[in-house]
Design a protein that fits this description.
It holds the Pfam family Resolvase. Residues 1-43 form the Resolvase/invertase-type recombinase catalytic domain. The chain is α+β, with helices and mostly antiparallel strands. Helix content is 21%, strand content 23%. It is built from 1 helix and 2 strands. It is elongated and about 40 Å long. The N and C termini lie far apart (39 Å).
């Protein structure tokens, strides 16, 4: 079973290219984890 991880740093970005690559590699969409995280540090 394959799992995938796609990450973007802002909500204005899109997962499309990462998801397409994971699907082509044989990862099922239900096994892809999507993450939206800011690269900024909270100090």
């Amino acid at each position: 079973m394959l799992f995938g991880y796609a990450r973007i740093s802002t909500p204005s970005q899109k997962f499309d290219l990462q998801i397409d690559a994971l699907l082509k590699a044989g990862v099922k969409e239900k096994n892809i984890y999507k993450d939206v995280s800011s690269g900024a540090k909270a100090n």
